[in-house]
Design goal:
The chain has 561 residues and is α/β, with parallel strands linked by helices. The chain has 4 domains: 223 residues, Rossmann fold (3-Layer(aba) Sandwich), CATH 3.40.50; 182 residues, Rossmann fold, CATH 3.40.50; 30 residues, no CATH class; 41 residues. It has 22 helices and 13 strands. The strands form 3 sheets. The chain has a 6-stranded mixed beta sheet, sandwiched between helices. A 5-stranded parallel beta sheet has the order 6-5-7-8-9, sandwiched between helices. The protein has a two-stranded antiparallel ribbon with strand order 3-4. Helix 14 packs across helix 20 and helix 15 runs parallel beside helix 20. The longest helix is centred in the C-terminal third of the chain and has 22 residues. The mean pLDDT is 95. The site of 6-O-phosphono-alpha-D-glucopyranose (G6P) has 14 residues, from loops. It catalyses: alpha-D-glucose 6-phosphate = beta-D-fructose 6-phosphate. Keywords: Cytoplasm, Gluconeogenesis, Glycolysis, Isomerase.
């Protein structure tokens, strides 16, 4: 990309202006901001691609937002967004574009990378997926002994697992009647053993999902699956009916024994954590059908268009990205919670964890110099209302500021009695409680009204007081359907991009995960029964633990005690 270095982030008039804004806002309570401005909700609400963002419960005013926008412009954010969509090499360390948006671009449009339009090959692959999914669903493609498939086991890890697993789970109400989807990721043998235990090899289809086709966990699990298949009556010839791969390394997949025609492509311009829109989404398409998979893409494309064209002030990913930076730099927030109030979205936080933390967990700028500011936050979360009875305590009364995203559909797929109204009330009451809190005096008065003696009420009031002034976004969608979900995931992808652009880091590489893999190879050898030959090269802790495992643990030969 024609990358021209950005000036230092924290040494600029725009940064000084933000610091001033933060000093002004820090002592102010959101209760007062709401009291002063009855239009705060409509003023700080945006709608796009079927999603509504209410960001009024944030510690912001028009002037702090204007200062954030000025910062975004000084970081040439609009130019960076343009570069992403134009297919420039925004992944500078790997010298590649990041073209996940091209995966959801309609066939009538073009995304040209160095003279070549990538959209036709994307749609060619979608059509191949469509044919394959149709053959599996109709029973035209059958397993050994002519039985139609009843189960699909997707084997992959990281981006080749989290996205497809989360989306399949989120779209549970759309699942094909006769097909169940399972996911195996962990190298822990319990994962695949537990999955296969309940399956019949005659009716089980395996998808081996790996962009690199080099990932230890995936290859070990794929080998275990093949062994199980063969040990349970499958022949080598039948492997070609039961094993399909998605990878950018077609030859490697063939070497593994997967028929060439059963290999779906992936491209090096798609990062693993952005790949659920590609053939890596095959488990999703098998679970919910190709029409729904295309709706997922359409929802994401609608968000792409919003992100690409909306002015920064009306741009949902831009606003969410800037708010994250605001809290992490000026309010000392170290983490960010994602709380979907929808049972089927319970794995969304895990997907966003990889998306955000692998993208923006970086310590040097694009030019290789160290950052002198915090970058990506710790992302965590879980399904509401469950968390209310667990970790919300820390959100309300802990000493750390944790900005929250509440995500809530207006309609449930299971409108049981008044469950959905209760769920919605829970969601709103949490964001309201975080915002307004309960001052000492209120806690005291409440206890007095319940008849508690004054002295006891005074004693307990500080324990019951809740400071409030805790920021949150509320994201609403009509229901968790393919289109809305596509838009929601794409929104977070773009939010991560915005923050990476502001911090001037490469959000598309992940060198940090490599060291453990390198060291793992040596350690794994040393854990073998005869692996301790020669001088130990490790630190005493690692050597001691290796020794202990060799003496007391169960090695690869299963010879442990
Ligand atoms: O799809 P694969 O090549 O098997 O990679 C699977 C995963 O492996 C990693 O170590 C990367 O950190 C992830 O970004 C990637 O998604």
């Amino acid at each position: 990309m024609t990358y021209s270095p950005l000036p230092p982030l924290t040494d600029s008039p725009e940064w000084d202006a933000l610091r001033e804004q933060a000093e002004h806002l820090r002592p102010r309570h959101m209760r007062d901001l709401f009291a002063e401005d009855p239009d705060r909700y409509p003023r700080y609400t945006l709608e796009a691609a079927g999603l509504l963002l209410d960001y009024s419960k944030n510690r912001i005013t028009d002037s702090s937002l204007a200062a954030l926008m000025a910062l975004a412009r000084s970081r040439r954010l609009e130019e960076r967004i343009g570069a992403l969509f134009k297919g420039e090499r925004v992944n500078t360390t790997e010298n590649r574009p990041a073209l996940h948006a091209a995966l959801r671009t309609p066939e009538s449009e073009a995304v040209t990378v160095e003279g070549q339009d990538v959209v036709p090959e994307v749609h060619h692959t979608l059509r191949r997926m469509e044919t394959f999914v149709g053959q599996i669903h109709s029973g035209q493609w059958r397993g050994m002994n002519g039985h139609p498939f009843t189960d699909v086991v997707s084997i992959g890890i990281g981006g080749s697992f989290l996205g497809p697993q989360m989306v399949s789970e989120a779209l549970r109400p759309y699942w094909h009647d006769q097909l169940r989807c399972h996911f195996v990721a962990n190298i822990d043998g319990s994962d695949i053993s537990d999955t296969l235990r309940h399956l019949d090899p005659e009716t089980t289809l395996f998808l081996v999902q790996s962009k690199s086709f080099r990932t230890q966990e995936t290859l070990a699990n794929a080998r275990a699956a093949r062994e199980w298949f063969v040990e349970n009556g499958g022949s080598q010839e039948q492997v070609s009916r039961h094993f399909v791969a998605v990878t950018s390394q077609q030859d490697e997949a063939e070497r593994f024994g997967i028929a060439r025609d059963n290999v779906f492509p992936m491209w090096d311009w798609v990062g693993g954590r952005y790949s659920l829109w590609s053939a890596i989404g095959l488990p999703i398409a098998l679970a919910v059908g190709m029409d729904n998979f295309r709706s997922l893409l359409a929802g994401a494309h609608a968000m792409d268009e919003h992100f690409r064209t909306a002015p920064l002030e009306r741009n949902i990913p831009v606003i969410m990205g800037l708010l994250g930076l605001w809290y992490s730099h000026f309010f000392d927030a170290h983490s960010h919670a994602v709380l979907p109030y929808d049972h089927f979205l319970k794995s969304l936080p895990a997907h966003l964890q990889q998306l955000d933390m692998e993208s923006n967990g970086k310590q040097v700028r694009i030019n290789g110099t160290p950052v002198d500011y915090p970058t990506g936050p710790v992302i965590w979360g879980g399904a509401g209302a469950n968390g209310q009875h667990a970790y919300h305590q820390l959100l309300h009364q802990g000493t750390r500021l944790v900005p929250v995203d509440f995500i809530m559909p207006l309609h449930s797929h299971n409108p049981l009695g008044d469950h959905h109204r209760l769920l919605f009330a829970n969601c709103l009451s949490q964001s309201q409680a975080l915002m307004r809190g309960k001052i000492d005096e209120e806690a005291f008065e409440e206890m007095r009204a319940e008849g508690m003696p004054e002295e006891k009420a005074r004693e307990l009031a500080p324990h019951k007081a809740i400071p409030g002034n805790k920021p949150s976004n509320t994201l609403l969608l009509d229901r968790v359907d393919p289109k809305g979900l596509g838009a929601l995931i794409a929104l977070y992808e773009h939010k991560v991009f915005v923050q990476g652009a502001l911090w001037d880091i490469d959000s598309f590489d992940q060198w940090g995960v490599e060291l453990g893999k390198q060291l793992g190879k040596t350690i794994e050898k040393r854990l073998e029964a005869d692996g301790g030959q020669g001088e130990p090269r490790e630190d005493s802790s690692t050597t001691g633990l290796i020794q202990l495992f060799r003496e007391r643990g169960q090695g690869i030969s299963g010879a442990g005690k």
